């Protein structure tokens, strides 16, 4: 099974790779893009509200977010991030769906192994058979109890299945009833990255790790409007099989998905909206204090589960002392990178342009498909094509032009 620390590392890389794979050629004409900063607040993990992350979202969209700790059933044992931003009419939007967890266990009676054992222990055939049947019955009772426990959550009882089937069985019925898959695209770069990370795991006899990454487009009805959505679903799992020579042969399947990034728009508009969606995804920044504190929670999960929020509060206070205010300031714009050339390379891949906000002094990643960028006295950001006048478009605000950060 993939450990917590390694799983986090894979998640970070996978999100970045997924963003790259989702990039689409920008349309020649770009509508003015008015943005504002949205703060994702963790209200429950540290005994007081803490800023966890920030993202740029269209100023006239409705955005809801939060951090859910230790949910009853979750692909991430520690916390889930809730994030959804949508247009006023709800016809366009982007959402981070919680990751899913699939569990499956089976016990199979092996008559050949049983027949080989009976002659070696004369007179015990009836007793052994009764014991085997009792074990199978107890296991079936546990399975039925587990099914009842996870009903209605993001955990499901299922053997290992591919990404498309997960979407069809567990995502569409709950998130887009009546929808259907209309396209599927493999993301081989992500799969190769996951496979390389899996090689770092200590091999367990009888277990086989696997991984799959797909971009899946679905069609569904959204309040009477024909709508399409793209879902990036990254799946990894382990299939473990017991000794085939045992009398009872056990098989266990454990499958997880990363949070499923979903973007939707009326049919035929999804690709044209790519620049807006890319900007939202690429602007996501985590608070380094919050990230460091949650990392410590993961590292001490056994103690944390016993002591709960009190211990998390202690970790938060310790982390505040350890991370300097100078480091803290950088999370509002972009995370520090030791290798600046590497950061420049990432900016090109992610199609962003780091611009300096002269009001706050922070760097802000803006979409590369635009020519001019401005910040208003109300803290909103505006991306325009060359020659467009921000004052004519939004005369109720005072605009200051942003300059390249480097």
Shape: elongated
Average pLDDT score? 78
Kindly provide the radius of gyration, computed on alpha-carbon positions and rounded to a whole number of angstroms.
25 Å
Count of discrete alpha- or pi-helical segments spanning 4 or more residues = 12
Structural class: alpha+beta
Q: Approximately what portion of the residues adopt beta-strand conformation?
A: 25-35%
How would you sum up the major sheet?
10 strands, mixed
- What helical percentage do the residues reach? 25-40%
Find the count of extended strands (DSSP E, 2+ residues): 19
**N-C termini distance:** 43 Å
* pLDDT < 50 runs, ≥5 residues: 1-27, 332-350
Short description:
With 406 residues, this protein is of the alpha+beta class. The protein is built from twelve helices and 19 strands. Strands 3, 4, 5, 6, 7, 8, 9, 10, 11 and 12 form a ten-stranded mixed β-sheet that branches.
Characterization of this structure:
This protein is of the alpha+beta class. Helices cover 34% and strands 33% of the residues. It contains twelve helices and 19 strands. Strands 3, 4, 5, 6, 7, 8, 9, 10, 11 and 12 form a ten-stranded mixed sheet that branches. A six-stranded antiparallel sheet has the order 13-2-1-17-16-18. A three-stranded antiparallel sheet has the order 15-14-19. A hairpin with a 4-residue loop joins β16 (372-376) and β17. α1 (4-22) packs antiparallel against α5 (188-198) and α7 packs across α9 (309-322). The chain starts with a helix and ends with a strand.
